[in-house]
Write a structure and sequence with these properties.
Elements (H helix, E strand, L loop, with lengths): L4 H21 L5 H21 L11 H19 L6 H20 L14 H21 L21 H20 L2
Amino acid sequence: MHGPAWPAWLLVALCAATGAYCLLRMRSGVEEQRRSAGGEALMGFGMAAMAVPAAAFTPPGWAWPLYAAVFGTAALRTLWAARDSPHHLHHLVGTAAMVYMSLAMAASPAAHDHAHGTGVPLVTGVLLVYFAGYVLLSGARLVPAAVPAGGGRPPGAVRWGDRPELARACRLSMGIGMVAMLLTM
């Protein structure tokens, strides 16, 4: 994405770390964790690749349509999975946003500057509102309502890859990354 280099590198690190954690979650004993972790790992690594500053690496022209094809395929798979679980609808919006950003970058890979006074494109604005709301809601869900006496779970009771609060934190960080990427569009 375009913008200053140091925030872009922080975004690359955040998304890559999130993708790596999601890969580890694929080893979970809980089937639903494994199923959603693969798509989230793809999103994390895809976001990291797209966030690399243009000054450090400018992808070849064929890379953006390839990103769009990969995330379009992921969106179709997610659409199929959404029949069983409404949770997958968020993943569908995320993959669709990645397709949108890939196509936007393919259309204008070099400058991607907006003329003064044109404002934010409608799709970008809708996605920004959605992901900003998602980030706020996800952040609020991470705050525990009350901590049980004794400090919560006993150590070792749940494997760290199966902890729902870490999965929520992973989704929150990807939502923050998506907001940051959409702001640079």
